[in-house]
Amino acid sequence: MPIIAAIAVLEILIIVHELGHFLAARTQGIRVSRFSIGFGPVLWKYQGAQTEYALRAIPLGGYVAFPDDEPIQETTPNDPGLLSNRPILDRAIVISAGVIANLVFAYLLLVVQVGSAGIPQVDYRAGVLIPQVATQVSTAAVDAGIQAGDLVTAVNGTDLAAGEAGVKTLRQAIENNPNQPLTLTLERDAQTLTVQVIPQVGEEGMPKIGVGLIPNVEISHRRPQNFGEILSTGASEFERLTKLTVQGFGQLIGNFREAAGQVSGPVAIVAIGADIARSDASRLLQFGALISINLAIINILPLPALDGGQLALLLVEGLRGKPLPSEVQYGVMQTGLFLLLGLGMVLIVRDTANLEWVQRLLQ
């Protein structure tokens, strides 16, 4: 059930994105030939007056197709119902509507979460929490016996403060002691442990031990006082998640070699969502909002085959006063689609191989 819930969240976000394109087109009188949920073999379909609606076997995607994109569709060159015959502004609205829909939906999810679960109150405690340990390869943390969920309370006898200060102290200790033993004091299942870990210098030249580090916090919730507080708190959380997402993409672009390994595909996203559903189903709303914001930002990037790539072509058309030759546009979009599909397959294979039950099979 947690896996099904996570897949459902991901698919709902994709449907919201495609529905944004669909509604933006239909409200402007632009014809849509297909609205498909999922990919692969058709499980169910219905032919409406203008649009074929279909449910397909692989529930990790979806698409909206226009008559312009399908050679089998009978069209007239000057048909105002075709997307390609509409002014640049009309087309820009249709193309960007999916991104806008994801952002609006993310905000609504956060409003629902605040209204149902309450306003989070964060209490920072001393120490640094280790949420995950890289287990797919031998790391210093694995060799030292460090486990996900351990709380680091001291490094080399120095107590770690609460909040980001403690994380900074531990991170600096790791970075300043390459190939030198560090003594960590841990709390695990109400027991105090002492381990020695030796930071290893990675390919990028930075010492690391192969763990994630986050502040040790205890979160409680209080009921909002009124509907206005629900809306304002949802807006504040939306702003926070958006900033974190943009910063994450900035780090990926600015330090691609080190950050590329943290990029997750649909398999890893579903696995994370399943873990959240098992531990606290109410957090699925925040998880869905975060993924929806990520989908919006990814799609607005000016890359071929993404919404941002199509908007970039519209910008070029506006500057030139005429569109690029159709064969050039087709080549750019097909190349981008090929690269995205290739990246998607790589991420799926990598994330599947990193799943815990797959790791057990391979041992």
From TrEMBL:
This is Zinc metalloprotease. GO terms for biological process: proteolysis. Residues 106-190 form the PDZ domain. Its cofactor is Zn(2+). GO terms for cellular component: membrane. SUPFAM superfamilies: PDZ domain-like. Its main location: membrane.
